[in-house]
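For reproducibility, we list the full input for the magnesium ion complex.
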Amino acid sequence: MARPALPMEQTEAGLPERVTIWEVGPRDGLQNEKTVVPVEVKAEFIRRLLAAGLPIVEATSFVHPRWVPQLADAAELMSGLGEAGRDLPVLVPNERGLDRALELGLRHVAIFGSATETFAQRNLNRDLESQFAMFEPTVRRAREAGLDVRAYVSMCFGDPWEGAVPIEQVVMVGCRLLDLGASQLSLGDTIGVGTPGHVTALVRAFAAAGVGTERLAVHFHDTYGQALANAHAALLAGVTTFDASAGGLGGCPYAESATGNLATEDLVWMLRGLGVESGVDLPALVATSVWMAEQLGRPSPSRVVQALGTRGAESGA
Ligand code: HMG
Ligand code: MG
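The corresponding predicted structure, in tokenized form, follows.
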């Protein structure tokens, strides 16, 4: 018997009609691959994700190529995408990264801060306080040039070196990043240790500090199998922007315990069941992840891709 192509719809009180999925597969997914994916495959992945209805596709990072060799082809990728790539967000840690993005006429960048001292050292090569000095001119100049700036904060729910991370510390770092001029703050569970009650508490703590859910996004990694439950908790708490990665690709090369992001397909399945619109064409997305898994030579960890993979391309549902 064929597997259902869509869930039965049953809504729940208090949910938004629509949410935005911020696709991070080409950046967060491919930054962690053991091999470097050819630039034409990356471009095709991005085009297919856009064609599947993902409204925002984070494309790559303008970081030091020695730090993340997997994305060393960022300039080649973005110039190859041409006008279609101009509004796709890219990560920039500093002014050098911003200059590289500006040279290509890009219009959307994201900085990425750390809620903990150790990860700031390991990921950005500076202490927690110094990260703000690096981001301040980066955000100011990006804004002056008319760019939109997102800010990430990593290790919001736990840190592999420091253990528990106090909620007040996450809120302090997050608010300082927003104060620099970022339009949105994405709360990263870099190593996937968070649980739903913790998500609710963190969103409430930001609200108490004057940051409403309209300025927040959530970014869950699925290391402990909590990502979808955490996304549901965030949805109930009023968050309407969700980071996810097609096929569940992902991780952070500077946090060994980080594995794949919440799979976009798993998120879309849940949203469809809840009657929350995301604009994503699930069969087209599954077909994209099946294709990408073939390029990478291993199956996708996404449960929905596994369930629908063999029929994803032809179901058209
Ligand atoms: P640094 O070595 O302290 O940099 O690295 P520096 O400013 O001292 O400069 C040293 C040299 O690097 C100079 O070259 C610079 O020009 C060059 P030299 O004069 O010696 O020839 N340089 C650059 N070159 C190209 N692009 C640049 C750049 N910056 C400096 N942007 C730096 C500091 C931040 C650059 C480095 O630590 C770095 O690149 N880190 C990136 C780490 C990273 O990408 N991690 C993964 C993304 S974060 C993540 O995945 C988490 C997230 O998903 C959310 C979550 O899950 O929590 C977002
Ligand atoms: Mg991440």
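The chain has a mean pLDDT of 95. The longest helix spans residues 128-144. Both points were considered when choosing residues for closer inspection.
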